[in-house]
Design goal:
single chain; 431 residues; UDP-n-acetylglucosamine1-carboxyvinyl-transferase, Chain; four-stranded mixed beta sheet; 26% strand; globular
């Protein structure tokens, strides 16, 4: 398996094009199951998770075609995909596919809404806590579906179609909101979702569904109203820029110093994280072409953060921020409130010389004057990139193994960093 070699100590200068958001792309692709017409998605990122979901959707009958590169197009530009589910050939999502990616469980909603039945394996995915599917199943029951668990599979039925209803989530859930939103578009009557997730990725899905003919009000607030329609049509939609990739590269600049333009990035998608980042001593300015991130040679200041649902500090940037805080001039506290077991990167950061103490849901980070390169291992998607951030500032060479975690969520990472002066290369060979 591939590894990544990083030699630290170089500032980043130049530009990094921001890819389409993985967390928006996956539900958008799944939404193609709701219609027999073609859904065209522009700015789709080239990621392992996207490719895996294409295979999963193909199992249900979705035909996918990808446009070729246009002349002069940047090698890391997003791709345009055309997805057509003219005929649903199978309403079962088997364990061997769903176990590879949790988000694929969401096919339950469009299959149930369009076909009146679905049989979907309980999910696998990143080992960062239980991430129960209870809320998703509750949402389907509120829309009139019968739910049974049989041999590790969720068997959902709504032979007369889904019915509008009220879905009140006891806890904010992005996956639950995605699922409820997709199912409600084809339900008979109106649906009210309360305590809905407000994340930009939910808004992006709602905008795409609206282009397909769905009637949705309130996306981006905690209450979403959906008036069901008989059928949805095709549409063309550009995937929003990836706010997690934006925050990750901004933190890399804060760690190393330099001046980088994050092309296509939107600060409004992650304002809380950028506000906290500014407190560390980095300058972040929204320009016409994207976000400019500058860091002079001054020390990194310690900042306390707590992960929260949008618009708070995103859990998907927690590991990266911890990587940055390992070089802060003082003590910072990072509290994780969204997922349990999301501090698996602590031990690997310690191998680089980081001083981190974990007390229940809080990591206490005492900044170290220097970090030193070492062999480290990625444990999940976001944890892996925290190691990259730390390695960019470490003395000497760091080898990151199990980089397939990185490939799930970061498109052309080594090319993007390398173009800005980082010494980073991909190595083949043993894990």
């Amino acid at each position: 398996m591939d590894r990544i070699r990083i030699v630290g100590g170089r500032p980043l200068n130049g530009r990094i094009p921001i890819s389409g958001a993985k967390n928006a792309a996956l539900p958008l692709m799944i939404a193609s199951l709701l219609t027999d017409r073609t859904l065209t998605l522009e700015n789709l990122p080239r990621l392992a998770d996207v490719n895996q979901l294409m295979r999963i959707l193909g199992n249900h009958g979705v035909d996918t075609s990808i446009d070729g590169k246009r002349k002069g197009e940047h090698e890391v530009a997003g791709q345009t995909a055309h997805l057509n589910a003219r005929v649903i050939v199978d309403t079962t999502a088997p364990y061997e596919l769903v176990s590879k990616m949790r988000a694929s469980f969401w096919v339950l909603a469009p299959l149930l809404a369009r076909m009146g039945e679905a049989r979907v394996s309980l999910p696998g995915g990143c080992a960062i806590g239980t991430r129960p599917v209870d809320f998703l199943l509750m949402a389907m029951e509120k829309l009139g579906a019968s739910i049974d668990i049989d041999a590790g599979y969720v068997v959902a039925r709504a032979p007369k179609g889904l019915q509008g209803g009220e879905i009140d989530f006891p806890k904010v859930t992005v996956g639950g909101t995605h699922v409820a939103l997709m199912a409600a578009t084809l339900a008979n009557g109106s649906t009210l979702i309360t305590n809905a997730a407000r994340e930009p990725e939910v808004v992006d899905l709602a905008e795409c569904l609206s282009k397909m003919g769905a009637r949705i009000k309130g996306a981006g607030t905690s209450e979403i109203e959906i008036e069901g329609v008989a059928r949805l049509s095709g549409a063309s939609h550009a995937v929003m820029p990836d706010r997690i990739e934006t925050g990750t590269y901004a933190m890399a600049v804060a760690m190393t110093g330099g001046d980088v333009l994050l092309e296509g990035a939107r600060g409004d998608l992650l304002q809380a994280a950028l506000d906290d980042l500014a407190k560390t001593g980095v300058e972040v300015v929204q320009e016409d072409r994207g976000l400019r991130v500058r860091k002079n040679g001054g020390p990194i200041q310690p900042v306390d953060v707590t992960t929260e649902p949008f618009p708070g500090f995103p859990t998907d940037l927690q590991a990266q921020f911890m990587g940055l805080m390992t070089r802060a001039q003082g003590v910072s506290r990072i509290r994780e409130t969204i997922f349990e077991n999301r501090f698996m990167h602590v031990q690997e950061l310690a191998r680089l010389g980081a001083h981190i103490h974990v007390e229940r849901d809080t990591a206490i980070v005492t900044g170290a004057p220097t970090l030193k390169g070492a062999p480290v291992m990625a444990t999940d998607l976001r944890a892996s990139v925290s190691l990259v951030i730390a390695a960019l500032a470490a003395q000497g060479e760091t080898i990151v193994s199990r980089v397939y975690h990185l490939d799930r969520g970061f498109e052309h990472l080594e090319k993007k960093l390398g173009a800005c002066g980082a010494r980073v290369e991909r190595l083949g060979g043993a894990d």
